[in-house]
Amino acid sequence: MGSIAPEDDSLRVAIIGGGIVGLVLAAGLARRQVNVRLFEQAQGFREVGAGIAFNATAIRSMELIDPGVIGALRLAGAVPLSAADEDDPNDYLRWIDGYNQRDPDNPYSQKFYYKACAGYRGFEGVRRDQFLEELVKLFPPGVIQCGKRLENIEQRGSDDKMLLSFRDGTTFEADAVIGCDGIKSSTREFVIGKDSPAGEPSYTHINSYRTLIPMDKAIGVLGEYKARIFHNHIGPRANLLHYPVAESTMVNVTAFVHDPDDWPAGKPTTLMGSRDDVRAAFRDWNPAVRDLVDLFPDQLHMWAVFDLWEYPLPFYNRGRVCLAGDAAHATSPHHGAGAGMGIEDALCLSVLMGEVLASTRRDRAARGAALTTAFDVYDKVRRTRSQWLVNSSRRMCDLHHQDDWANPAKWLKAETCFEEVKDRSHKIWYYDIAGMVMDTIETFGKAADGRVQDAVLAKDVSAKDVSAMDVSVKDVLAKDESINSLAINSLVAAVSEIRVDS
Ligand SMILES: Cc1cc2nc3c(=O)[nH]c(=O)nc-3n(C[C@H](O)[C@H](O)[C@H](O)COP(=O)(O)OP(=O)(O)OC[C@H]3O[C@@H](n4cnc5c(N)ncnc54)[C@H](O)[C@@H]3O)c2cc1C
């Protein structure tokens, strides 16, 4: 059995999964001097050639994770969603009537419903494959290992390292493991247990079809303005949205179609679909939408959309293993923010691993406890917001797909949804990400201090007790103690003495 041996005694963190979240996280850890290895089951990085859009919070998170990530985004041809609007520097999401033909003299006319301001460079679209390609270039050889499917994790060894086993028979020892292995995560089993009902993906009854269309062709059917700027054409039980990518040379188009049936167990969730399927779904829609669908290729990928809405995880961590991105909170895509939420996770984890490294530089034996604390803090900071997204995305789909859009008597009622759409969107786009970083650092600091104080206050604490202080930070935080730094220093000194004495 081959083994990938760690070369030194640095903080070694293994990331499982080389999707967007795993790669961005790896960049953040590498920047903070963590000895990171990323293991991807596939033989290479081949994202589908479809687009993805990142909101302002995700973009700001990338900047804080590593400016190299922003560099990769721009080199991959990212373009603001409203770049073509010369009269206004801000980006907007725009919703229009995709279904009705309200003007008998012009069947192509579409009622403009609403626009929500995402701010300056508040949303950028990029091709997934090109972004991944640029991200991979950030790493020196050896950091990313392909063809490594994780099969097992166990904690063992004198210093309680995590031992990872891969399908190819190799193993790897790490101080901590972060599962970024998507909705069908294998790491999740280790965190929540094999028999837990949590983490079971549910079918959202939505199928999505994605394709890229050359800009000139899209302009031919939509006109210059509409083709170059994000528009979401909504109607009963479906919607179709598009935005520019690849330096505005291509338009990313995604159609979301309601499916009343269940998804058979075991059936692959990514399939080849056909343009005819999409045509059938939009048969009665405004001709502007139908003409766009006519530009789809004969055959294109279709994704059955699953999420973790019905069975959310009760926690994202266990000991020195935690989950991020879709592995923790896979969401349906109606906010266009699933990857963005994973990038927020990556920022939180990058900051925490930096804190662990800094706080244990002189005391490597304390690393295990510090890592456990860090992952507890991560769970506390990230879980509520990321699970809210999963919930809110389902709600956005219901609002987009109302039957009322097809009923003139209900049009006004249907349009009242946009106040809610705005509130939900702003919660994502205008999040105080710097505040999250401060909260993360402060919570980690308090928790680490709490561990030290507890040790000193215990009358007969032994070295074994100290190392067993791998306890949940939640217990410590529940006390809500504030400790001044002079006291902390003497407590740290006292604990060091206890270790030496015993
Ligand atoms: C139609 C659609 C449109 C979307 N649009 C947007 C958008 O505009 N903006 C946005 O922010 N989000 C969007 N999303 C959501 C976004 O695509 C996901 O949230 C994001 O890609 C998840 O990234 P991830 O790295 O967490 O997981 P994944 O991309 O699923 O990556 C997981 C990786 O782990 C690997 N892996 C799995 N198991 C193992 C194992 N045992 N060992 C080793 N490797 C393993 C996989 O091969 C894979 O490479 C959209 C989603 C859909 C379906």
TrEMBL record:
Domain FAD-binding per the UniProt entry, residue ranges: 12-189, 295-363
Keyword vocabulary terms for this entry: FAD, Flavoprotein, Membrane, Oxidoreductase, Transmembrane, Transmembrane helix
BP term (GO), one: secondary metabolite biosynthetic process
GO MF term (any one): oxidoreductase activity
Transmembrane segments: 12-30
Family matches, as Pfam families: FAD_binding_3
Top-level lineage group: Eukaryota
Family: Belongs to the paxM FAD-dependent monooxygenase family.
Protein name (database record): FAD-binding domain-containing protein
Lineage, uppermost ranks: Eukaryota, Fungi, Dikarya, Ascomycota, Pezizomycotina
